[in-house]
Specification:
The protein has nine helices and two strands, in the order αααααββαααα. The protein is mostly helical and 188 residues long. α2 crosses α3 and α4 packs across α5.
Length: 188
């Protein structure tokens, strides 16, 4: 397949070729979605360029390894988004739990701190999963990825006012869900 034909390839065709091990198809897929992944990682990692590059590269490695798991080509952007978010969260956790103490990097969280944080996070995640899609995306970026409203606005390409409204609506539903469960309160 020539370069011109490759550029016009449909996403479904590209993914099929990637599953078959076609390196040029994977390169094209990476080119098409690199900007999207990089913009999201940039917003999630507050513009830390080295961390953004690490997250995006790691995300595309995951895509390469797991492309066979994806069955619906239309789901690719959301699937990639989740992979990027996961890689950014991994990097952020590492940055938060390790501090340079003059001799090297040392952990500042105890295992109990981590266990309590994970339990709280799991309760919030479960409640967020049940929100409508737009509220869920916005709430994930705000509560789980700890982005500011302006960063969310850039990541989702919507006005800040829209982010505020989605968060307001999401908070109402989350308060109700979390208070009914009695497990945790939303930190708002």
């Amino acid at each position: 397949m020539g370069d011109n034909e490759c550029v016009s390839a449909s996403l479904n065709e590209l993914l099929a070729r990637c599953r078959a091990g076609d390196r040029s198809a994977f390169d094209l897929l990476t080119q098409r979605f690199y900007g999207y992944a990089s913009s999201l990682a940039d917003a999630l990692l507050n513009g830390r360029r080295d961390a953004v590059e690490d997250a995006v590269q790691s995300a595309f490695v995951v895509v390469l390894v797991r492309v066979g798991d994806l069955r619906d080509a239309e789901a690719f952007p959301g699937w990639l988004r989740q992979i990027v978010r996961t890689e950014c969260s991994r990097i952020t956790r590492t940055m938060k739990t390790e501090r340079f103490d003059g001799k090297g990097y040392a952990s500042v969280e105890t295992p109990l701190d981590e266990a309590v944080r994970q339990e709280h996070l799991q309760s919030v995640r479960h409640a967020i999963e049940n929100l409508p899609r737009l509220q869920r995306e916005t709430a994930e970026l705000f509560y789980l990825d700890e982005l500011a409203q302006r960063e969310i606005s850039r990541a989702l390409d919507v006005p800040v006012g829209t982010v505020k409204r989605r968060l307001f609506d999401a908070r109402e539903k989350l308060r109700e869900t979390l208070s009914e469960s009695g497990k945790t309160r939303l930190p708002i």
